[in-house]
Amino acid sequence: MRLALDAARAGAAAGEVPVGAVVTCGGDMIATSHNQPRGLRDPTAHAEMLTIRAAAAALGRERLDDCTLWVTLEPCAMCAGAIAHARIARLYYAASDPKGGAVEHGPRFFTQPTCHHRPEIYAGIGEGEAAALLKDFFTQRR
Fold it and tell me: What pTM, to 2 d.p., does this model score?
C-alpha cells in the first residue's frame, strides 16, 4: 500500500485526484499508476484502469488471476468491472468512498449475481493516510 500511496501523492502533485494503484504478482511489483483523467484527457484513466492495463501488458496476458491490486480508494463501478474482467485474485483498498465506491457502497458490484468473478477483498489498510490525502487535495481546491 505504501507504493500506492506514493503514486497517489504523485497524482496530487500533477493536479489529479490523489488515487494510486499497484498490481503485484508473487511479491513483485508489476505496475503502478495514479489517476490521470485530466492529464490524458480520458475519463477512464483511473489509477486502477491504468495499472491493470500496464500489468496485463507487462505480463503478456489479459487474466491477472494470480495478482493483487492495491488501491488507495474504494474502486468505482467501472474499476470494479475491470477488476472482475481481469480476474484479479485479491483487492486491497485504503479509504472507503461512500459517494462513488462500488465495493462496499453503491452497487456493491462483487455481490451481484451477474458478477462472474469476486476477488478476495480487504479494506482499510492505510485508510487514514489515504483519506487525509484526499481531504487535503479537495480543501486546497475550495
Answer: 0.96
Cell numbers linked to 139? 480543501
Ramachandran angles phi, psi of 139, nearest 5°: -65, -40
Q: Which amino acid is at 75?
A: P
Residues 19-78 have pLDDT tens digits of 999 999 999 999 999 999 999 999 999 999 999 999 999 999 999 999 999 999 999 999
State which H helix or E strand residue 121 sits in: strand 120-123
Asked if 20 and 47 count as a contact pair (C-beta separation under 8 A), the reply is yes
Catalytic choice (48, 74, 120, 127): 48
Catalytic residue at 16?
no
C-alpha distances out from residue 126 to 2, 4, 113, Å = 8, 10, 30
- In angstroms, the CA 71 to CA 75 distance is 8
Residue 91: closest CA among 8, 31, 1: 1
Backbone angles phi, psi at 69, to 5 degrees: -105, 125
